[in-house]
Amino acid sequence: MPVPYEALIPMGLVGVMFFVTGTGYNALARYRNDGKPIRHSIDEFESMMMKRDERLTGSMRGQATNPTAPKEFATNSAWNTERVL
């Protein structure tokens, strides 16, 4: 049984929209990660290092090459403070 030609136009539109949304999601994810691919299966150590890198460089994916931390790094601690009664 042949496929009617009228069905090819909607199926083409559906395929194009899948392509557009997939490409848009990939571009947005790379934009948020400084042009690098997204990370999968992040464990506790990697999330801790991502927080440290964000405190050092201002970007979660950026890494600093300077062996000494800037002066601001001493005061922007990752530890949360608690109110003492």
From TrEMBL:
Entry's localization field: Mitochondrion inner membrane
GO CC annotations, alphabetized: mitochondrial inner membrane
Keyword Transmembrane helix: yes
Region called Disordered, residue ranges: 60-85
Keyword set, alphabetical order: Electron transport, Membrane, Mitochondrion, Mitochondrion inner membrane, Respiratory chain, Transmembrane, Transmembrane helix, Transport
Membrane topology field: Single-pass membrane protein
Pfam families per UniProt: MWFE
Transmembrane region(s): 7-29
Keyword Mitochondrion found: yes
Primary localization: mitochondrion
Function: Accessory subunit of the mitochondrial membrane respiratory chain NADH dehydrogenase (Complex I), that is believed not to be involved in catalysis. Complex I functions in the transfer of electrons from NADH to the respiratory chain. The immediate electron acceptor for the enzyme is believed to be ubiquinone.
Family, per entry: Belongs to the complex I NDUFA1 subunit family.
Protein name: NADH dehydrogenase [ubiquinone] 1 alpha subcomplex subunit 1
Species whose genome carries this gene: Pseudomicrostroma glucosiphilum
Lineage: Eukaryota, Fungi, Dikarya, Basidiomycota, Ustilaginomycotina
